[in-house]
Amino acid sequence: MIEFDQVSKRYADGTLAVGDLSMTAPSGAITVFVGPSGCGKTTSLRMINRMVEPTSGTIRIDGEDVTAQDPALLRRRIGYVIQHAGLFPHRTVLDNVATVPVLEGVSRAEARRRAGELLERVGLTAAMGKRYPAQLSGGQQQRVGVARALAADPPVMLMDEPFSAVDPVVRESLQQEFLRLQGELGKTIVMVTHDIDEAIKLGDHVAVFAEGGRLAQFATPEDLLAAP
Ligand code: ADP
Ligand code: ADP
């Protein structure tokens, strides 16, 4: 599980992005950060893998303070998926997925074999693995982004608006496939979205952020829907 314990973040220019956030994202579940633009969702997400350091407070993963861990090692245990998949443009799709394991010492042949399996799991063919990212649709590129994040088999996945850049029909199918995959994998996932419908559809738990990075509500989708 991921615990935020009285976490605040004030950027150098004085902006209070997150104010006294305390909450827990349970293990093996999808927790969605939802709320309007600028209310501290992305900042909160990036404090988990230390892309952003809190001004005060503590974040723990399975009881361990993230600041006690080497950021590079920490990020191996934490997959990261962003809105525009952020793929390496000059590497094939297969090598996009295989690159990080190779850097971590897995042989190229083994990394490519596993990358092929992962691409299949996210619904892409071997032929697509041979293409370059620009030769795939936006929806397909997002699948590659997910496969790449899964390549290290991280227990934790952070996802920042992973389905926002694709059209509504593709989004719907990506969301369904994502839920199916998570049903098999049971990762601890924290996802950011500005779309309350997406939060309700995908979240096991929903953290509703408000102005100043304050937590307005932490609830299950059922409770949110039942609220007057
Ligand atoms: P959200 O993800 O909810 O849109 P962010 O966490 O990106 O919110 O931003 C929260 C607030 O912090 C906003 O007011 C934003 O402008 C500000 N902010 C984000 N990143 C920086 C930065 N690097 N420096 C200064 N202010 C920032
Ligand atoms: P999606 O609905 O997933 O966004 P698109 O309508 O963008 O898909 O693309 C439909 C098909 O065309 C896909 O199979 C994709 O692989 C292929 N395709 C899209 N862009 C290119 C491109 N630049 N070069 C080759 N094939 C492409």
UniProtKB/TrEMBL annotation:
UniProt-recorded Gene Ontology molecular function terms: ATP binding
Domain of life where this protein originates: Bacteria
Keyword Transport in record: yes
Residues annotated as domain ABC transporter: 2-228
Keyword entries, A-Z: ATP-binding, Nucleotide-binding, Transport
Annotated family: Belongs to the ABC transporter superfamily.
Protein name stated in the entry: ATP-binding cassette domain-containing protein
